[in-house]
Design goal:
27% of the residues lie in helices and 18% in strands. The chain is an alpha+beta fold. A hairpin with a 2-residue loop joins strand 1 and strand 2. The longest helix has 21 residues. GO terms for molecular function: iron-sulfur cluster binding. Pfam families: Fer2_4. It comes from Kipferlia bialata. This is 2Fe-2S ferredoxin-type domain-containing protein.
């Protein structure tokens, strides 16, 4: 395999074959946050948490999908890059925070009527066909489940419409599907 030498945080490193910048970072122990990346799925580029900076151009790259170039200088930990990573993670956490406002999973003493109603409403967003269960309230829009459905299971039955939670392709309710 062909190797590429590039500079990562002031240190010359090697990328081999089709290594992404994130692959190299993980191999040498440099932490770059990545919410939607899973090695078996490859880059999804949805969470934008794995942003790194190309020092020479000043541009920001998604480490999960960017392949290093010979002599390229990449920084993962300068203040501007860390700020961009933090904002991306905050965006994911805000979606998770919205998902976790459901209150307790069952009605108990101390649960307000509003919490009970909210829990009921959010659970109404659950679709289930016996094989797949989707709770839209828990979705942080990372895309991993849809990618795994397509790339690992070869099912191609889930989609992640822009700025929405995962759903069966075409918006079909799971109970109407035949895969039981």
């Amino acid at each position: 395999s062909e190797s590429v030498t590039f500079n990562l945080n002031g240190q010359d490193v090697q990328a081999v074959g089709k290594d992404s910048i994130l692959d190299v970072c993980r191999r040498i122990g440099v932490y770059v946050p990545a919410v939607c990346y899973a090695p078996r799925l490859g880059p999804l580029g949805r969470c934008m948490a794995c942003v790194v900076q190309d020092i020479d151009s000043g541009s920001y790259l998604m480490a999960c999908s960017a392949r290093p170039k010979p002599g390229q200088r990449i920084c993962t930990d300068n203040p501007a890059t860390k700020r961009k990573q933090s904002v991306a993670i905050d965006n994911v956490l805000s979606r998770q925070a919205k998902a976790n406002v459901t209150g307790p999973s069952s009605v108990s003493h101390g649960t307000t009527e509003f919490e009970t109603a909210l829990h009921f409403r959010l659970n109404d967003q659950v679709t289930d066909n016996g094989a797949i269960r989707i709770n839209a309230a828990d979705c942080v829009q990372c895309g991993r489940c849809a990618a795994a459905c397509s790339k690992l299971q070869a099912m191609d039955i889930l989609e992640l419409p822009n700025k929405q939670s995962v759903q069966p392709i075409g918006g079909i309710h799971l109970k109407a599907s035949t895969s039981r």
